[in-house]
Amino acid sequence: MGSSGSTVLTASVDAFYNDTGNASSFTVSHPTILLGLGFNSSSADAAEDDYDDDDDRRKCVLASHFYIHGVVAGLLCATGIVTNGFSIAVLGRDRDTSPVSSLLLRSLAAVDIFFLSSWSCAWTLFFAFEYFGDLRSYHVAYHYLRLYTYPLIFVGQMATIWTTVLIAASRFIAVSLPYYAPTLCTLRSTRNRVVGVLVFCFVYNVPRLFEFRVEQELGRRDKYYTITEFGKSRGYQFVYVHICYYVFSFFLPLILLTTFNLRLIADYRRINRKRNSMLSSGRNSTREKHEQNVTLIMIVVIVVFVLCNSPARILQVIGSLTPRQPCPTGKFFMAELSSLLEVFNSTSNFFVYFIFRKQFRRILQREMCAAGPARNRTGSTTALTIRLNGGMMETIIQDNQGLNHDK
Q: Residue 104 half-sphere exposure, CB side, CA atoms within 13 Å?
C-alpha cells in the first residue's frame, strides 16, 4: 500500500561472476527464493540450475524475469510514483482531514515513493540488462547504483510496513480509546514517531550495505558485483537475514495490524450505527462524518496492505524451505507474481483515497482544472470533471465556449 508492500520485494536478485579463462559464468540469487532472505548456497545452486539445465529453461527464466519484474513491475512503479505524488499534494490541501491523519497518510505516500524508486533502480533496470545483453556489459556506474539501492529497498519496505502500523495504532487510539487521543495523538508526537520509524529503518538495514561489493577482475578492467564473506556467513544469514527479517517485517507487524484492524472494524460499525440513529434525529455533525470517512479509508488501506503482503511473505517462507521450482510451472509463476503484490500495494493507496473520499476527488478535480489549458481570449476554457456515478468512474471533458470565467 503501500507501503511495498510493502513492500517489497525484499529479495536480492544478484549476479555473481567467476571467470575461468575466456569463459564466464554467473549464478543468480533469485528474487522469490531470496525474497528478504539474502544469499545462500543452496538457493544459488538452484537458481544456477535454471540457467544451466537447458537453453529453453534459461530463456523461460530470463523472459519471465523481464516481463514480470521488469515490464509489469516497472509500470507499477512509474504509476505509483506519480499517484503517490498526487496523494501527497491532495492530502496536504484537505482541510477536512485532521492534521495527524493527513501527516500519517502523506508519510505513507512518501515512503511508498522511496520504495518504488529504489525498486526501479535495483530490479527493473537489472532485468532489462539481463534480458537484452550480457551481464558484463553493464556500465560500472550501474554496479555501484545497485550496490547502494539494494539496501534502500529494504529500508523502503520496512518503512512502508511500520508506517502502516503507525496509521493503525493512531486510528485505534482515536476511535477505540478517544480519552487518550488528546495526549497520545498530538501532531508533534506523531511527527516524532514517524521520524523514529524512519531512523529505525535506516539503522536496522545498515548491515545490508556490507552484503555485497564491487570488485575488479585481476588483469582486466571489468568490474563485477559479488557477495562478501560477511554477507554469506552462516551466523549473519541465520540471525539477521532469516529470523530478524521475519520477526520485524512479517510476524510482528501482521499481529499488530490484525489486532488493531479487527478492533477498528468493530468500533467503526458500532459508531456508524450510532451515527445513523443521530442522523435520523437530525443531530449528526459534519465533523463526525469526516472522521468516520477517514477511519474507513485507513481500514481499507490496512486491509489491502495485509492482503498484498501476507501471500508474498508466506511464499517467501515456503520458497526458502522447499526445492526451487523450474520454469515454466505453476508454482514458479505463483512465486514470481507474488512479489508484484508488494509493488502493487505501494501503488494502490491513491485509488483507495479516490474511491472512498469525496473531498479527495474534489480537490484533485480542482487542482487538475487549475493546471489545465489556460483560457484563451474568447473566453473558452477546458474543464476536467471527474465524477463517481453509480460506482463507475467516468471522465467528462467539457468545452465551455464563451462562459463566464467565474462559473
A: 27
